[in-house]
Fold:
Amino acid sequence: MRTFRIQAVRLLWAALAAILAACCLSCCRAESGAFSCRLVRDITSYSENTFHGTAPAAGAYRITVRDDTTVYRELEGRIEQAGAFEIPWDGTGFNEERLDPRAYLIETVLRADDGTEYTDSFRKASEYSAQAVNYALPSATTLNLRDTGAWFLEAKAVMDGTLEAEWIPEGAEGPEKTGRMAISGGKAQRFSYKALAGSYRPKEGSYTLRIYDGKNPGYGKDIRIEVIDREVEAAPIGITEEFMPGENDSPADIWRKMMLPSVVVDIGFHQHQKIYETPDRKAKSLGTVHGQTQGLKVIALEGTWAKVGAWNHETGAYVEGWVPKSVLKTETPQTDYGLLFDKQTQVLTVFHQGEIYDTLKISTGLGEEKKLYQETSAGSFLTGYHRNSFSSNGKKFDYVIQYDGGNMIHQIPYYWGNGKKNFAAGTDQLGTKASHGCIRIQAEPSENKGINAYWLWTHIPYHTRVIVLEGAGEGADQP
Structure:
């Protein structure tokens, strides 16, 4: 019996030794192929950042740019044969987001066609960025030469520079006019038609407006513009259709409602208009709504007054009351995109030209006792201006678009410290009510199209339709 036990122990040790030897052989095989993947110089966003390396075999690669908490970019592709290779990269994160100046860990995995996995990693700093236009978005895709003062372009560039504005008629090989204007780096700015074109007066027709900085023209933006030259009467104030989606509405139904005109109050973005209980300025106020972007449901017209329905700013509750007809005007949404925010599911659905494009995780406002104004009000809105980043309670908020008074659509907050961003708290709150009224958007790319808060900020123009649906148990007062 004792001999049997000794032999069993020896067999066990032999088996363990064989397993260890196999593991060591596998590890050695993964590293012995002289696989390498490196950058020659520091990272420069919006520039050529070519990875150079040597592969022991053909296979699929994945390059990950990250820090301890966040992945900023993943590059995937194939190396077709063993030997030296080059992989181009523009030095940016997802959706061409500039990388902040600091150090990054870059990890490369090559899975060879025979199943062997090779790895390499290194750290590299991002100290500088080339010039680039992050976004250039028109206030409308139609420019009426009879009212050029109402039209503007929102734009942001990485650094101070001079933007070129080329007006290229459809079918032409080059610009008919080139305007130039100074831009301050890192700031959301608006440029008038005069700033872009001076005294130039294009003919009616379709144009490409190309915006770029001559220091790095490859990172500009092309915009389609339809030029008209005729009087357009302001849309009258009338009884509105139902503009909020119903439970059984199809995507086509929702898109049709997104494209309806908006009756708004013609006061400042942050100013408040009272909704009166009766058509009398001395009557009780049922609540207030914001100017320019908050859509009102017009229920009835009586003389100089309009009976309207909307979700008030103070509590987020739906109310119906009266406002002077003289303070109302009708606005038309842009037709490329529409945003549907569902407070019950905490999901944003992005529409593009009538079709569902993608979905994103969100976090809306949490109304608390004596702070009911923190509830994200339901309703139909239009986006306002792009805004600069801001900080609050030690947290940073980037990629800001105003849409309802002081309420914004922006990226989830992050803490900045030890040379890195920490999105952990903001990410954990996605899918819940947590903000002070604003709508927070996920930072990481979506699983479908790979869009995120930065993508929204660089693609969603002024006067894009925003619809916010009530959450479970809310809106009981709405008829």
Summary: The CA atoms of residues 94 and 199 lie 39 Å apart. The two ends are 87 Å apart (CA to CA). Helices lie at 2-32, 193-197, 251-258, 424-429, 453-459.
